[in-house]
Structures are given as C-alpha cells and as structure tokens.
Q: What sequence folds into this?
C-alpha cells in the first residue's frame, strides 16, 4: 500500500492578506513537506498587489516551482476548481492548469463540477462535463498529470454522484480528490465513502469541521472553503489514516484545508502523530 505525506493547501493564508510567496515560506517554517497552490486564469487586482495567495496561470510557472524549491517544499497538486459543466468557462482553464502542473512537477490538478448553469438539465450537464473532462484528459494523459475530481457540489455530494462523474470518461488520468470536510457537511458517512474511493484516490483534502459548524450546516450545504484545525473537529483522523494506509494503492498527500496559520500548525502537529 502507499504511504501518507502531509501538505498544506494555500487557502490557510486566505485571510492573512499575503501573497503565495508568504504562504509558501510560512508552510515551510511550520515544517510542512508539501504545499497545494491555487491558480487562476488571467489577472486580478488582489493577487497582483500581493494581498491574495492565488497564482496566475499567465505567470511563468517556473517562478512558483523555484520558490517552492528554495523554501524546501514540494507541490502536491494545483487547486483549479471551476464549473466542469460550462466548457466555455472551465475548459481552457483546466487544460492550461494541467500544462502548468506538468511544468512545475505537480502530479495532480484538483477540480469539481462547480455551480451548474441554471437552465441546463442533469442529462445535459453530464454531456458538458464529459466534454470538458475528455478534452482535459487528452492533455493530462500525455503529460503524466492526474485530474482529481472532488466531492464539492450538487452532483458530487453523494458517493453515487461522485462515481457517476468519475465514470463519464474512461481515462487513467482521472481520479478522486476526496475532501473529508465536504463529505461530512453534505450529510454523508465519511469513512465508508473514503473506502469506496480508495482505489481511485490521487489526493486528499484533510478538512476537519468544528462542532459549531457541523450543527449549523451539516446536511444543508455540499461543501465549505476551509475547515478548522485537524483534530479540533468532529472527524476521526486515526480512522481516516488507517483507511488510506490499508486501502489506497498509491502514495497520497493529505493537503490540510484550514482557515488560519495557527490552525495549520495545530493540524500538522495532530496528523504527524498519526501518520
């Protein structure tokens, strides 16, 4: 079976008003081995001014690669979410994200079906999602990059729905990025769902959910941007680690998704004891 490494999603710096370079240095100082940058298409004010952690696809990917190398981090994957059912929005973005991943040595690009167009049927959405994924898979297959489909929105909020999305395109480049917190908030039993996808798992978003968050939103939402520190919430991380160690055939990075640097540090301390 594969081994588990611990990484940090750059969203921990979301409210710190700092650029990706700051997030990477902070993650390295804490002792993380991996980082998961978020990339965006085009240009926007906040990250250009250094107040936000996302990196533009239009930047030279080697800048991000060299920065991570300088601080001693490896890239576990790129976060490139968008509406798969809207090819005009997410098609070129996802394909370019795969190419950037190949340049920086990131093995995975994570995405999900996103918010659907209000006028399409589910059957129409499946055709559109298949189109977007098939086009991206052609590029990913050639470059040895994996596309991780995440449980995050209206179709992927159930085990059956995520399976359906995964089965739309027959490609070795398409796997699962399982988000523990999203699965829990959608009202699902996290542990059997993780076992169900373990053979297809390519990346994992280690997201815990506080008791207060659970009481307020469980069963009412399909996901959340970030959770609390791993170990501070409702999820059993020893059980999650055991499932991945036993069932997953490949090495997996647990990419922590939390809201603050303090939560990131506590998450690493908690997970290290278990991994």
A:
């Amino acid at each position: 079976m594969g081994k588990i490494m611990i990484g940090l999603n750059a969203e921990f710096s979301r409210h710190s008003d700092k650029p990706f370079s700051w997030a990477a240095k902070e993650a390295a100082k804490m002792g993380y081995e991996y980082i998961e940058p978020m990339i965006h298409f085009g240009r926007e004010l906040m990250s250009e001014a250094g107040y936000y952690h996302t990196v533009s696809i239009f930047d030279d990917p080697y800048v991000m690669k060299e920065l991570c190398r300088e601080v001693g981090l490896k890239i576990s994957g790129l976060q490139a979410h968008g509406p798969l059912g809207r090819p005009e929005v997410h098609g070129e973005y996802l394909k370019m994200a795969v190419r950037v991943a190949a340049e920086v040595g990131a093995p995975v690009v994570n995405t999900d079906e996103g918010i659907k167009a209000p006028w399409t049927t589910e059957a129409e959405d499946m055709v559109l999602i298949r189109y977007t994924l098939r086009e991206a898979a052609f590029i990913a297959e050639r470059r040895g990059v994996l596309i991780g489909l995440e449980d995050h929105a209206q179709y992927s909020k159930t085990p059956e729905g995520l399976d359906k999305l995964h089965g739309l395109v027959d490609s070795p480049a398409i796997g699962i990025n399982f988000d523990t917190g999203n699965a829990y908030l959608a009202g699902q039993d996290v542990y059997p769902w993780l076992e169900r996808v373990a053979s297809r798992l390519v990346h994992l978003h280690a997201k815990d959910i506080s008791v207060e968050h659970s009481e307020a939103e469980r069963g009412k939402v399909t996901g959340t941007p970030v959770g609390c520190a791993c170990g501070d919430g409702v999820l059993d991380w020893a059980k999650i680690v055991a499932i991945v160690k036993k069932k997953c055939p490949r090495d997996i990075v647990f990419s922590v998704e939390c809201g603050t640097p303090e939560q990131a540090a506590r998450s690493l301390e908690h997970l290290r004891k278990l991994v």
